[in-house]
UniProtKB/TrEMBL annotation:
This is Radical SAM core domain-containing protein. Pathway: Cofactor biosynthesis; molybdopterin biosynthesis. GO terms for biological process: Mo-molybdopterin cofactor biosynthetic process. Its cofactor is [4Fe-4S] cluster. It comes from the Eukaryota. PANTHER family: MOLYBDENUM COFACTOR BIOSYNTHESIS PROTEIN 1, MOLYBDOPTERIN COFACTOR SYNTHESIS PROTEIN A.
Amino acid sequence: MAPSPDRKQFIRDHALPFSAFLTDSFGRQHSYLRISLTEKCNLRCQYCMPEEGVKLTPKSELLTTQEILTLAKLFVQEGVDKIRLT
């Protein structure tokens, strides 16, 4: 079902610019992005990999290389100047 014309207009009038989502609750503007390319890290650091492990995401649900590049370009257009690939 498509949004009604009134709803579309409301969204246009009240939607925050994408860059607003890069600002935290203290008003700090973030200009970096971390993209995790894999969840198969074998370091097993306590803070991100519990001893019992985690269920891995099916490959069909992971972003493709093209999707990652598209997202990175969108963030750069919004002011991101550093991207860390992990």
